[in-house]
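Below is how a single chain appears once it has passed through the pipeline. First comes the sequence as given, then the structure the pipeline wrote out for it. We keep one example in the README because the format questions we get most often are answered faster by looking than by reading.
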Amino acid sequence: MTKHLASVPIPLFIILIAVLAVWDVKIVYEPPLLLPILNTIFIGVFPVIASFVAIRVYLMSGLLNVLLLGCGMVAFGSGSLIGGWMLGICGVNCTVTLHNTGALLGSLFHAAGAVLTLTAAISQKRIKGYKTKGIIAYSAVLVFMIFLTIMTYHGITPTFFIQGSGPTLLRQGILELTLVMLIFSSLILICFQRLYKSDFLYWYSMSLILIVIGLSAIFIQKSFGSPIGWVGRTAQYLAGVYILITVLKNLISLQNREMSMDRSIALFFSDMPGNYRLLMESSGDAIISFDEQGRILMWNSAFETMFEPGNDGLSCPVVNPLILSDEFIHIITDEINRLSPLKHSYTVGKLLQADMKRKDNKIFSAEISLSGRYTVLGWVNLAIIRDVTEKRKIEEELRRHKEYLEELVKERTAELQTAYEGLQSEIAEHRQAEEKFRELFNEQKVILDNAGIGIAFLKDRKILRINNFFEKLLCYTSDEIIGTSTERFYSSKEKYEEMGKAYNKISKGEICQTEIIMKRKDNTHFWCNITGAAANPANLDEGSIWLLENIDERIQMQDELRESEEKYRIIFNNEIYV
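Resulting structure:
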């Protein structure tokens, strides 16, 4: 269950109670063991768990308001638990007497604890024997409830409820007082919750409100076990669940922070105004708190250093002696008047600026942060006054530097504009050069593509570029061989490795020329005249250029010439012999 959903049942219970009160249903449903079991679980055990936590906190801290809240839970829980089980023993009146009296005693303890928390009338010094007194207080409440049970059982106590006729005047008076005390306690806890944003106070105050709603339903019931009575019981049972959630949520949260619940609750309830005062004194800014009439309630030492408040601390006007300008007096007054009607837990106003004077009449620049919070004592304003004289000087110096830098930026911008124009001119020239180079490249490409020899540009003996005649010469397309090794063009691997020795020659700047048998894609062979040179002999990684010429016809003619010469030589020799 989230905090946002916790308050949803409250209006639903109120509407349901109002409907049943008007409808006045006469049905009575009261199984023998249902009430004792539900009372034991929800408004017996759960409040007892809360009272156990409270006594542990008290034994550690000695806080009287925590002890009173714990006693209230003991009274309410024991009255509900014992009263539930007495239903089958001594009847309806016995149950109502014990439950209502326990609720009254619990409400009185809660109201007293809330008043102590509100007025901060809590001694921070541990009273001698406070632990013993805490145990005695718990024991006294339990003894009283047991004594009341015995008295009720023997019929000594006055009658509280008559089944069918309804409650007596005494019982109604007790419930009325109980409701007033619980409403008072829950309102104070809600105010503190809105001020301190405490989950503990939120769930605890919600549980008290549900108890108030439950007791209100019981207040108007005429028959024990009626539908409106069960609605009241259900509201109290949900209050018990909220009490358990209060304990569990704080326990889980504090385990994450490695702090015990006892210590956390003790720190929360101990000296709230003292902690607030410590926070004010730790600030280097002047802080002043004042009410709706402009009377100073509190100020810190920084305020005393800067100004001179009234000796009584009550009648010193807040605005007029501090602000020099009448215009700013009206501005601040208007801002305070704007904040005051907003009855939220707190409201933050605008940041104001004004020229003010110290108690030595020296003028200084100030920033004023106004905020307000609505408390049970009324609307309280808080002003934080900060001397920003040095800040203004720094801002003025920064403004001058900014103007100086802006001037430098203008000059630099003009220089960059000039450089940009020069760069644009260079880019235009570069583009013209690129265009000329492209034209020259295209011309060269046309020449190379139409040359009668194959041309290849190699890198690491892999083909990077070739011309058209190279494709025709070896019967490969450029897509097939670009990026591949030249080994496929040799008749054998030995010839490929032997040709690799040519790179030693071209690395010296020499031109390599040789005749070798090459292999086409269709595995046909031809004689090829190869001429190669390095693009940069100092760095073969930049590649090399190779020219390939088909010399099959020339080799054939040479062979034919050689055969012809051999024939003539034989003929010539024979003629001499003859």
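The chain is about 60% helix and 15% strand.

See the next section for the split statistics.
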